[in-house]
Amino acid sequence: MRYTRYPTRRSAFYGYFPTGIKWLLVSNTAIFILTSLLPYSVNQHIKVLFAITPEAVLRDYFIWQPLTYMFLHGGIWHLIFNMLTLWMFGIQLETDWGTRQFLKYYFICGIGAGIGIVLVNTLAGDRYTPTLGASGAIMGLLLAFGVLYPNQRVLMSFLFPIKAKYLVMIYAAVELWSTFGANTGISSIAHLSGMVVGYVYLKTGWHSFRLPDWRGAYQQWKLQRAKRKFQVYLRKRGRDGGPWVN
């Protein structure tokens, strides 16, 4: 993964809305509008299926929920805050990393936060409370921004200028404190899990990890098998004393 401080932008439009961010903004907004227009009973059924609930993941094997919960939001302000934060901190990251690496990191943080929700809530005895929203992935982006551009000034709560590294420290402390405080309806576990997964990803060799090339390995196996068959055939022809043609 390359970390470039001074990227070259393709156009003004691309600079404000890189491909990955644009896709995430459109998909999250479209899903929110669609679910808002559906009858209440249907909307609740969608949340049961696609929001993340530890009991559903562990008992009913709804293994898609650590991914799908990121595309559901509990209200218009929940959506707006997440999408603004995505846009604010994601532009620099996607421009420097490229769309593929940016989306890879985004989904690793989001899915990692989902797994954290399942594990921690199960250990805490809270297996039935659903969680939804992209905040785990968003907090992973915030963490990455603070790690890679620590001295760049950003707007805390979109109002107060502060260095990125201090913003990350403040948010991490607030989320850690909230974890042991009263229930506010906000999943601090998701936020902290997204940040932890993002930090581990950036500080280890995860970003250079590549899945095995199974297709290439299969083609190589077929080639070797054909080679062995041909060698057997040549040996048989040699024993039979047949003519060689050149």
**CATH level-two architecture of the largest domain:** Up-down Bundle
Total helices: the number is: 11
What percentage of the residues does DSSP assign to strands (E)? under 5%
- The CATH homologous superfamily name of the largest domain equals Rhomboid-like
Q: Let me know the largest β-sheet.
A: 2 strands, antiparallel
How big is the Rg? 25 Å
> How would you classify the helix and strand content by structural class?
mainly alpha
Q: What's the mean pLDDT score? A: 82
What would the principal axes of the Cα set say about the shape?
A: globular
- Give the N-terminus to C-terminus distance in angstroms: 52 Å
**CATH secondary-structure class of the largest domain:** Mainly Alpha
CATH topology tier name of the largest domain = Rhomboid-like fold
What's the number of domains?
2
- Strand order in space, largest sheet: 1-2
**SSE ordering:** HHHHHHHHEEHHH
What percent of the residues sit in helical stretches (DSSP H or I)? Answer: 55-70%
- Give the uncertain stretches in residue-range form: 1-14, 241-246
Give a count of the beta strands, DSSP E runs of length 2 or more.
2
Q: What does this entry look like structurally?
A:
The chain has helices spanning 12-16, 19-37, 40-50, 54-58, 65-68, 76-97, 99-123, 135-148, 164-179, 188-203, 214-240, and strands at residues 153-156, 160-163. The chain is mainly alpha-helical. The chain has 2 domains: 12-208, Rhomboid-like fold; 214-246. A two-stranded antiparallel ribbon has the order 1-2. A hairpin with a 3-residue loop joins strand 1 and strand 2. It is globular, with a radius of gyration of 25 Å. The relative contact order is 0.11.
